[in-house]
Amino acid sequence: MKKLKRSARLVEMTQYLLARPHTLISLTAFADRYQSAKSSISEDLAIIKEVFEGEGLGELNTLAGAAGGVKYIPKTDKTAALRTMHGICRQLEQPERVLAGGYLYMTDMIGQPALMGEVGRIFASAFAGKDIDVIMTVETKGIPLAYATATYLNLPVVIVRRDNKVTEGSAVSINYVSGSTKRIQTMSLARRALKDRSRVLIIDDFMKAGGTVQGMVDLLSEFNATVAGVGVFVESGEVGTEERLLEDYISLAKLTNVDLKTKQTTVVPGNYFQP
């Protein structure tokens, strides 16, 4: 790269860091990239760090030593995240979203990259301190959420299928009981998709009783994998605690009331925002 003026270098460095979250970048790499002294790079990074943290864009962590450098950690403070979720809750309360069985139509919202980017950043903030190797979701509506989260955590995504695909080779399949319908269903994961003993973050779009998430947890045991966390976009409050198959999870929104006759719903921020 040609030598840049400081103003241009600051812009390019910022973009470089934003595109590589959770990646340790050495001062030497920056110095070589911009043909600048390490002292100048350090001053630039101090400016970027101040802006990132002042504007709530995340943290720029510095690691000292010969193998050190800087690492950008995307984060959204809870005040900003709560503001975002209040807006999403209002959208979810629209009467035309109510479906049979107390579910909500969310496909249009999940299909908005900018909105899912905000949700993914919130999930990334919630699980930033966890030791995670991969993000898992089940097809299909959970996929945009998983990829949005993976973008900010800089992690790969594995997708659990409802049936085995020939193009994915041999797979592990299990039967699980849907927590809401009590029906026996099947899910499968290609053997090559997940390394043995991986630490996995599960992301799902909607949870009623938790049968699907519990199925993924059971499937992970076949790979000797560990569940590092569970993130749910919307949970249903219509299920009693004694019916919930899962206890340890983070939700961003909670559907607390559904009137199928009047199409009136109440959606509030989830347990992530509780004291």
TrEMBL record:
Q: Which GO terms describe its biological process?
A: negative regulation of DNA-templated transcription; negative regulation of purine nucleobase metabolic process
A GO molecular function for this record?
A: DNA binding
Q: Which Pfam families match?
A: Pribosyltran, PuR_N
Question: In which domain of life is the source organism classified?
Answer: Bacteria
By sequence similarity, the record places it as follows:
Belongs to the purine/pyrimidine phosphoribosyltransferase family. PurR subfamily.
Extract the NCBIfam families matched here: purR_Bsub
Q: What is this protein called?
A: Purine operon repressor
